[in-house]
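In this supplementary section we document a worked example of the pipeline. Step one takes a protein sequence of length 474 as its only input; no multiple sequence alignment statistics are reported here. Step two produces a three-dimensional model, which step three serialises into structure tokens for compact storage. The input and output of this example are shown verbatim.
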Amino acid sequence: MSDGTDETDGTNRHRVLDAVLDEVSPSDDERATLRDAYEAVRERALAALEDEGVDGDVTLVGSAARDTWLSGDRDIDVFLLLPPSLERDEFETVGLNVGKEVFPDGTVEYAEHPYVQGNEGGYDVDIVPCYDLDSAEELRSAVDRTPFHKEYVRKVAEEHDGFGDEVRLLKAFARGAGVYGSDLRTRGFSGYLCELFVHHYGDFSSVLEAAADWTPPVRVEFEEPTKEFDSPLVVIDPVDPSRNVASVVSQDAFARFVDAARGWLDAPDESFFFPKEPEPIDADELIETLEERATRLIAVVFDAPDVVDDQLYPQLRKTRRSLVEELERKGFDIVRSRVFASENDASGGGGRAVVLVEANVGEQSRVEKHVGPPVHVREHATAFVEKYEGDDAEENVVGPYIEDGRYVVERDREHTTVEGFVRSDDFFGVGMGKNVETKVRDGYDVLVGEDCAVLLDEFGVELARYFDPKTPSG
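The serialised model returned by step three reads:
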């Protein structure tokens, strides 16, 4: 091969890929079961459209329709193709009415517009309305692209022998690397993105050989883009050139995929596709690890807002990022930080959320050095001196004195520990996500060091991954 792989390595690589395909390809029974579930939903949806007096159609979309789905996937996307003559309010009403007729006990979910989710034959089914358009240039909502994606990929597959298997390999590899999924929790590779990569590069192996040398920004263009994109990975949607299919991919997901590609090319192994789930860390391991690291682990724990993950995780990350920035402004050296959230329980109650920070030191000195303006900036310098020498000046202040041409004071530090800060009202000055802040204000716990062991029943795997960050996170 062009990358210098010898015959033995090539044979081993093909052996591994054949074994992986056996695992990830749907069986005939799976295909039949999925088809039966879809047909049952389609029949009820068509009847519901007729009852609504709407001349619409029903179609299967997503990876199941394009034959690129992975064995074990239990999701079906069913789209209602509705007339463009419907105004937006009526469009949404028809979509919800049909969805509720198909699944009377279904739940209403929200994306760009509401849709209904239910279960049929063990499959989670989304019933999503879209406009039945003649051209992708007529798009009226984001989901209107999806039927055009379906037709585009099906045409590609007809001209590309073995296309579905190559896509399945890439999806399984991305899943093993923890970067499969365009949701805002994962911020990784969508199924459609994997399909476009196989279309562009030719097959699974060629995608990885290219990825091993990726240097951002990476651009893949099927059409001339109609706008500029600022992203580490830019893949122009052939259906809609104004869209970057890879816009959600984070820098870390991009880098993890590159790292995994290099690892696979160096030593092909099934573990890249099927990594072992880490064993949950137990209390003894947690205490031993913290003693070895000699750091201070702090967990802020609160009830998770009752919102979907695509709303929750951006808010949790914003809260974590703002907290870390504020702590570092206050002189704390933060080694690492993470956010976790548990699923809602079976009764519909919310789970818990955790913002975790690990500080390099447990406690700072009481004294804080505060650097003021240069002496030559008279107005600001005079105000600084008056603040610390006037009648209302703080107690226990050393200075002002001059150092490197600036006024400096040494004053009492307001918070000497991270936990002291997060337990204070100052914590509420940190920029939090809207729903997160509401829950935090309702009440939260602060756990320090070995007290974090109370989280292990719920977050033992997440903490195991935290202390072994090379472990894939998805």
